Automatic annotation (TrEMBL), chains A, B:
Keywords: Calcium, Hydrolase, Metal-binding, Signal. One of its GO terms (molecular function) is metal ion binding. Belongs to the sulfatase family. SUPFAM superfamilies: Alkaline phosphatase-like. Residues 27-384 form the Sulfatase N-terminal domain. It comes from the Bacteria. The conversion to 3-oxoalanine (also known as C-formylglycine, FGly), of a serine or cysteine residue in prokaryotes and of a cysteine residue in eukaryotes, is critical for catalytic activity. The modification 3-oxoalanine (Ser) is found at residue 81. CDD domains: ARS_like. It comes from Dysgonomonas alginatilytica. This is Arylsulfatase A-like enzyme. Coiled coil: none annotated. Its cofactor is Ca(2+).
Length: 508, 508
């Protein structure tokens, strides 16, 4: 007689049945986060009109995803990487978490030099989950809360949450149970397996941005985007054995510089008459899109697509200030400028959510949301009702937008604070803070004291500054922005010549 | 002007200073756990007399550790691996956590067949930190609590906390931030790097006990004990950069079977006239001892020895029922029997604690303690005062024994429950439960109903069963043991012929 038959069945069944109900209440969740991808870097039109960019780039799987879910046409990130990623993982606005610029090395700021202003003492070491670590923001991460609530948590790709040699450098310290290739680096030394993803094998020290963990692909003709996808699928194979729902944070290194040629797609773009570098850029996009499709195929083949939510997002605007062959600052048109800018080109992102059980297919939403909203949204999706993170949560769940049951964006204002010096110059690039209120957007420049006011609904390209005409709105929004920044204990730069802090927007 | 000079110093200093104070209150902690090491597998005498084994084996670094700390002569584990490791990581007695036998594959019991009894539905999948996983005990692990309280948590070596393809298989799921070579397997396919630690490279599936993660040493003439030590030191190099205290759980695969020759030490033992297999066994011991010494050297060289606690322990008694060339069941003499037995040979462990700040050098303690005591002890050492694990904590901190400020063992009883069928036969090996109360130890055999009573102080070899003479004590301890087991909801086997449960010790 087998031993299992002796155990009274009544002992087992209620237990397993409860567990299965709980699992069914908890969908799998995939965050598919692209790096430095602009709002127009796709064949899927997020604007009211189809643009030249939509015609150039080919992203059939983004179209497929949009076809089975909801597009968001006004989804915002921060203008650079670390602040966005930190906000996503913490629910906290960058003005509050103070990881306002990009991180890399311990106790080392990546601010560029400015003759006029000195950036504040921002959290140059990023986030961490432990106390007493200098220059970090202590948090309870989204992954940690999901893990604590029964999710199997997988990190794949770019992390960029904390500086090297600090606890936040490693996703394992932030509640992830699997980490594939995530570390302190926010860029990549090479996309190419043939180049060992930038890792040195001659005994010399590898560059800080060499991609870790993918040794098995070294020397092979494979792009990092593909290698990460293969590894993510392996992690999902294993996840399915664990009797837990999974959270896959699939954060591609693509389409960050260096703009290398993914030869699976490159020639097609050359044949369209595009330059070498623009063709290479397009090949990075299409390689990322193939990864999306491969993961969607995987979910379908494994019969878990119906119970899996996919959230597609980028961390900041497309790079338009350097490294591209065409006219600078125009690659995100109709948006003005790109990565690093307070203009829409720097912060508006392509965003799609597929949630078969709840979201209407082929739907589109024009309400604005911001990157920290992912935190409460995902926890609501996961049916995690009680959580008590160390940090305040500024984000608002956009589940009501997805289900059509409410509009949390109504009457809401969005805020940005970048008291730093990014480096390249260009439209809207500088130490700024901004507020979006309905159709209006106010931008304040800490160094010059200049203010700009745009009606985004009428002027998506932010070329008609209305600050002179609508001083009433400038005054109202300046006051609101100043109050907000002080309330969340935001930071501002200091004037180099006087050593005094720059003024808040409502002090000018 | 450097930007740091602009920031008011007053903002910084109190913060960093507080952090440093906190760090100083929190020592680094190393658990050095050996696998299947018997009480006599060392040149360091844990008995009142020096034995032949103490003369055969050479463990200079255990002597060195004892020289700087406290030896425990009556430290207990369970009689097999998983229950001990689970108790250490949870503070819970095996009778309660029900991971009573060793784990390996999901939903698969490793109980051997018996004609008489059927083991209960024990937690064959081990522990995990999430709910709804069948046949597991849900816990908050020691590593998790330490991590949540600011420790950098490193797992190196054998895990054996949960079955393959369940959440507990992987230390990353249990609060460890680094995992080197830990998985579901409790043994090892090979010690040898030249043999890839048992991993197949011919496309065939590797055995379940192939050691993971150490690919870089494949094909090299290196023992796994050495490879783990090198990797642990690298992890400590990095830990020192993180401004956190560290918890290193250094759990060697040694000295588990297969008994392979570590050629760095083997010939010396052959020259003493020992057989091939006994010399190989001795070489495994000395390889483990070298690792201990290397880590002690590391701490000293790096100036952190004074603030680092080392706890040396084994998980169960030395294997004496199979695989050795000398007379079976004698290899732990003066203790009777070995691994798998309720006798002292199966459960008494070599234990040493070095804590420079608090523990007297060259000291010895004869009070008894048990493996689940490590949990509250380590948390007390780490100055973690409030914690709220899911599981009840049965262990008692032995910090007062270390500091001489109290005796938590006084008047305390220790309990074991093994309602399983291990496999090999031998003295004290079977489905048993036991209680130790002062000098007395009662063992109850579930299948036969037999009871044995030993006075451990007078009869460490457990050869004089006093159950006939001291029926008063048998009755008292039977009652106590039965009550305890029912109180913690312990499990017992079932009789195969009737399907009825075996009797509790106080029902016979």
């Amino acid at each position: 007689m087998e031993w299992k038959s002796i155990v009274p069945l009544a002992v087992f069944i209620p237990f397993i049945s409860t567990a299965q109900n709980k699992i069914q209440e908890r969908p799998n969740i995939v965050v598919f986060l692209v790096d430095d991808m602009g709002w127009q870097d796709t064949s899927l039109p997020f604007w009211t009109e189809r643009t030249q960019w939509n015609n150039l780039y080919e992203t059939p799987n983004m179209e497929r995803l949009a076809n089975q879910g909801m597009m968001f046409t006004q989804a915002y990130g921060c203008s650079v990487s670390s602040p966005s990623r930190v906000s996503l993982l913490t629910g906290t606005n960058a003005a509050r978490h103070r990881v306002t610029n990009w991180t890399l090395e311990k106790n080392k700021s990546n601010d560029d030099k400015s003759d006029v202003i000195q950036p504040p003492d921002w959290n140059i070491n990023g986030i961490c989950q432990t106390y007493g670590i200098a220059h970090t923001y202590q948090v309870t991460s989204l992954a940690q809360i999901l893990k604590d609530n029964g999710y199997h948590t997988i990190h794949c790709g770019k992390a960029h949450f904390g500086a090297k040699d600090t606890p936040g450098e490693n996703p394992y310290h932030l509640g992830f149970e699997v980490n594939i290739a995530g570390h302190a680096g926010g860029g990549l030394a090479s996309y190419s397996g043939a180049e060992n993803f930038g890792n040195r094998t001659d005994g010399q020290k590898s560059p800080l941005q060499a991609v870790p963990d993918l040794d098995k692909y070294w020397g092979q003709d494979i792009f990092v985007t593909e290698a990460l996808t293969l590894e993510a699928k392996k992690a999902l194979d294993h996840a399915q054995k664990l009797d837990q729902p999974f959270f896959l944070y699939m954060a591609h290194y693509a389409i960050h510089i260096p703009i290398q040629k993914d030869m699976r797609f490159y020639q097609k773009y050359r044949d369209k008459g595009m330059t070498e570098i623009e063709s290479a850029y397009a090949s990075l996009i299409e390689g990322m899109d193939k990864s999306l499709g491969d993961l969607m195929d995987y979910l379908e083949i494994n019969g878990i697509a119906d119970n899996t939510i996919i959230l597609f997002m980028s961390d900041n605007g497309g790079l338009a200030a350097t490294s591209r062959s065409s006219v600078l600052h125009t690659q995100n048109s109709p948006l003005n400028s790109g990565k690093g800018s307070a203009y829409e080109g720097g912060i508006r992102e392509p965003m799609i959510v597929s949630w078969p059980a709840k979201v209407k297919k082929q739907s589109k939403n024009d309400e604005y949301i911001i990157i920290e909203d992912f935190f409460p949204t995902i926890l609501e999706m996961a049916n995690v009702k009680k959580y008590n993170p160390i940090q305040p949560v500024d984000g608002k769940s956009f589940v009501p937008l997805l289900t059509g049951e409410g509009n949390p964006s109504k009457g809401r204002k969005l805020y940005w604070n970048f008291p730093n010096v990014w480096g390249p110059s260009g439209p809207g690039i500088g130490a700024t803070c901004s507020v979006r209120d309905g159709d209006w957007k106010l931008i304040y420049y800490y160094d010059s004291g200049k203010k700009e006011l745009f009606n985004i609904a009428e002027d998506i390209g932010e070329v008609n500054d209305c600050s002179d005409k609508r001083t009433d709105i400038v005054k109202r929004l300046s006051k609101d922005l100043g109050q907000y920044l002080r309330r969340v204990d935001a930071q501002r730069p200091t004037f180099k010549n006087t050593g005094h802090p720059t003024l808040w927007p409502d002090e000018v």
